[in-house]
Design goal:
Nuclear Transport Factor 2, Chain: A, about 35% strand, ten-stranded antiparallel beta sheet, seven-stranded antiparallel beta sheet, 24 strands
């Protein structure tokens, strides 16, 4: 179920250029006059392994015009960023001269190439513009049950997408273990911004507030912007930051614990009893692995039976280990600073492993500790200064009122 609120904001942007030919004028005698067609319009998707040059060539442009068109683009956009499956529109004259090319970069931006002077078909102007979008408020209510046992399924049942589910899970990543804390009867209410373009869904803005009941406990989150710094962050109903020193899990969403911390565990490969100084999470190959806390990469490389491993040093004497990775995150190497929640690798089965999973370990003051137990000891986040509590409470109460308003089915 969802509720749509009146539009609050119109994001001022460049309007999309309409690739339409003007209608032919009516004949004075009352009979239709057939005018010769001057242009051809091609609407298509960028093919696999397609480049901007190959797309322009496939559109029938004369070779002498392709290079100056590419040169105009390079000043505002890297042609190598063209992505397969993205839509484009190409308008050319029957003689092979480019009139206009428009490519959808993402949900927010487009690339446009135009030839402003008919007398100079080799002279082009390129620009990156913003789609004209409208932003409105929406609220959904979801429930965990036998049919919808996960946040993804529960959000999907409301008509929203996995992007909202990921944002919601990320919001409570420091408070809820989405593997063990969810039970039938749990649920959530969430208020968020939704963007539309030409009446169609065009993406999500930030979550403004949410309530999530997990394992019988209600958690609340509210987005509040500090008027002094202009920075927005999330806080609980008492104004304490939701950001914890550690995330509850190094996987972005709904990990499954397959083996816990143990000093005496039967090894699945060697079939001997030995210590397992971490927590194994079953997850599909390629799933994103994130840093549980901000810190500095100590090592990122091969670790024998541990396969590809990343080790990160954090404050307060902590170090975290991520084993059996299939690959490393972009730019992850020794000495690099990483932020909490940053992707540092992908789930794999390198080293001694029976299948794709993540072996996550945590060391405190030189000794391995049970990560799950250590995470439960985390204190609440830093509170909002007392001088700003009145401002925060006004935001909180307004969001709670919006969430509590009876919901209407449909977008």
């Amino acid at each position: 179920m969802s509720r749509q609120f009146p539009f609050r904001v119109a994001i001022a942007a460049l309007a999309m250029f309409a690739c339409r030919q003007p209608p032919p004028p009516a004949a004075p005698s009352g009979r239709d006059v057939v005018l010769p067609r001057e242009t051809e319009t091609i609407v298509a998707l960028v093919p696999r392994d397609g480049t901007l040059e190959s797309v322009l060539r496939a559109g029938g442009l004369t070779p002498s015009l392709i290079q100056p068109a590419l040169a105009s683009v390079r000043a505002v956009f890297d042609p190598r960023q063209l992505r397969a499956g993205r839509p484009y529109t190409l308008v050319r004259s029957l003689g092979g001269a480019l009139r206009e090319f428009e490519y959808e970069i993402d949900a927010d931006r487009f690339l446009r190439i135009v030839a402003p002077e008919r007398a100079r078909p080799d002279l082009f102007h390129a620009e990156v513009g913003l789609f004209d979008k409208q932003v409105g408020l929406a609220a959904v209510r979801g429930r965990i049950d036998a049919t919808h046992p996960s946040v993804v399924a529960a959000v999907g049942a409301t008509g929203e997408t996995i992007q909202l589910a990921l944002s919601l899970a990320g919001l409570f990543a420091g408070q809820i273990d989405f593997d063990s804390d969810l039970h039938p009867g749990d649920g959530f209410d969430v208020l968020f911004e939704r963007s539309t373009r030409e009446g169609r869904f065009a993406g999500y803005g930030p979550i403004l507030g949410a309530r999530f009941t997990a394992d019988g406990r209600e958690h609340q989150a509210f987005r509040w912007t500090d008027p002094l710094t202009g920075k927005a962050a999330y806080y609980d109903e008492n104004g304490r930051s939701l950001k914890r020193f550690f995330l509850r899990s190094p996987l972005k969403f709904e990990p499954r614990v397959t083996s816990g911390f143990s000093r005496h565990r039967l090894h699945p490969v060697f079939r001997t009893y030995r210590a397992h100084l971490g927590v194994d999470y079953g997850a599909p190959r390629g799933a994103a692995v994130v840093a549980v806390s901000s810190g500095t990469v100590v090592s990122a490389g091969w670790a024998g039976g541990g396969g590809n491993m990343v080790r990160i040093r954090h404050a307060s004497g902590f170090e975290s280990y991520y084993l059996h990775l299939s690959s490393f995150g972009k730019g992850i190497r020794p000495g690099v600073r990483v932020e909490q929640g940053q992707v540092i690798g992908r789930v794999g089965s390198t080293g001694t492993a029976t299948g794709p999973h993540l072996d996550y370990r945590l060391k405190k003051n030189g000794h391995f500790v049970n990560p799950l137990a250590e995470h439960r000891k985390l204190p609440p986040g830093e509170p909002i200064p007392s001088t700003s509590l009145a401002s925060f409470r006004a935001v909180r109460d307004r969001v709670l009122l919006e969430i509590s308003t009876p919901l209407v089915t449909g977008h």
